[in-house]
Design brief:
Layout lengths: L6 H17 L2 H8 L8 H9 L17 H14 L5 H15 L2 H12 L5 E4 L15 E5 L2 E12 L6 E7 L10 E7 L5 E7 L5 E13 L3 E2 L6 H36 L1 E2 L2 E2 L4 H26 L5 H30 L9 H14 L4 H11 L1
Parallel strand pairs: 1-4
Antiparallel strand pairs: 2-3, 3-7, 4-5, 5-8, 6-7, 9-10
Length: about 375
């Protein structure tokens, strides 16, 4: 089987890498993540102009007709530069879910706006007590006239401070943890009754606690079937996992390369520390973990269109590998750099923070080990 990238995907990677090298340096990252609104707003439009936001969307709705591999290429380069823009929630989750299950009117309205950089979507699925159970929902959506009224709270909604639209999961029937009765709504953030408490995250992103109080949503803003939205959410979650795995491999690549380069210049007892066999072995193990993570990321990406159980199993396997490898590579990079490894001025600690946060997104290692075993 040929695993090489197409010419278009190679060009996509090169264009992303060049733009980020010129415009998304670590110094600029430190500057705009510490100021309001927490990002350089011009970058999102630049991404649109480069075709990154349209790459995986359908051609009929302003996209370029690519797929999950295109998202993997983009996210790996994003991981190398610590890109904080909400690409996953907007393009991978929002764009992907609407393209597959949205009405014709929603596709016509939303997808061209995503491709053109005119809309940002935040995925409001987690709740304060739900842990990693996507079906554990206290947020409710009650039928009222021709629409629905939403009430509830959503926790750690990444990118919500920058978003104009929220993709909200809510219970329309059944008990709090029933698989049946989950529905998905597209909610304008300016709708009456939507309030947010915004805050920075440890890895430089922005998130919100979202409160929904008697929020009226038209029936036309429902994605998929009422009461049967869990399968949509699970697939979107697995696609987000694949994208974040690619991001993690990009971050690991930087840590491996940075650590090897540092070991050539940092001297101890009059010789570079890279000459010490013990440290050479540790850096080889870092590189091996990175390469294994790349393979697992490609594996889950290529399995996203398989049957649900095969897709879930692949996503969980990749998430376990990425979680373990990310922690190992990050710890080794910090330790080999010594005390300077966790200083704010050096990028090493920031990459380690991001890898730590990626481990918790959409389920940590323990959660996905249990899911993998349950599916085996």
């Amino acid at each position: 089987m040929d695993f090489s990238f197409s010419e278009e995907q190679t060009l996509l990677r090169n264009s992303v890498a060049k733009f980020l090298a010129d415009n998304y340096t670590f110094e600029k990252w430190r500057k705009f993540t510490r100021a309001e609104p927490g990002r350089d707003v011009a970058n999102w439009q630049h991404f649109a102009e480069l075709g990154l936001l349209a790459a995986s969307l359908p051609e009929d709705f302003g996209g370029l007709g690519g797929g999950a591999v295109d998202n993997m290429v983009v996210m790996e380069e994003f991981g190398k530069a610590l890109v904080i823009e909400p690409f996953v929630s907007t393009v991978v989750v929002g764009g992907g879910m609407i393209a597959r299950s949205g009405s014709k009117d929603l596709k016509d309205e939303i997808l061209p706006r995503i491709a053109g950089g005119e809309s940002i979507i935040a995925f409001a699925f987690a709740e304060p007590k739900s842990r990693f159970n996507l079906a554990d929902l206290s947020t409710t959506a009650k039928k009222q006239g021709s629409g629905y009224v939403l009430n509830g709270n959503k926790a750690v909604v990444i990118g919500a401070p920058w978003a104009d639209t929220l993709l909200v999961t809510a219970r329309t029937a059944g008990g709090q943890r029933d698989e049946k009765g989950v529905s998905v709504f597209l909610v304008d953030k300016k709708t009456k009754g939507v309030t947010t408490r915004d805050y920075p995250t440890v890895d430089g992103l922005r998130a919100s606690e979202v409160t929904l109080e008697n929020v009226e949503v038209p029936a036309g803003r429902v994605i998929g079937e009422i009461d049967n939205g869990l399968a949509l959410v699970e697939r979107a979650s697995d696609e987000a996992i694949a994208a974040h795995c690619a991001e993690a491999t990009g971050a690991m690549k930087v840590l491996v390369d940075t650590t090897v380069e540092y070991s050539k210049t940092r001297k101890q007892f009059g010789v570079p520390i890279g000459k010490f066999q013990a440290l050479q072995h540790r850096m080889v193990d870092m590189f091996t973990s990175y390469e294994q993570s790349k393979s697992m990321t490609l594996m889950v990406t290529l399995n996203l269109d398989e049957e649900a159980d095969a897709r879930k199993k692949a996503a969980s396997a990749a998430k376990v590998q990425i979680g373990r490898a990310g922690r190992f590579v990050g710890q080794e990079a910090v330790q080999i750099h010594g005390g300077i490894g966790m200083t704010d001025e050096l990028n090493v600690g920031h990459y380690f923070k991001r890898l730590t946060m990626i481990d918790t997104l959409f389920g940590n290692v323990d959660h996905h080990l249990k899911r993998f075993v349950a599916l085996s």
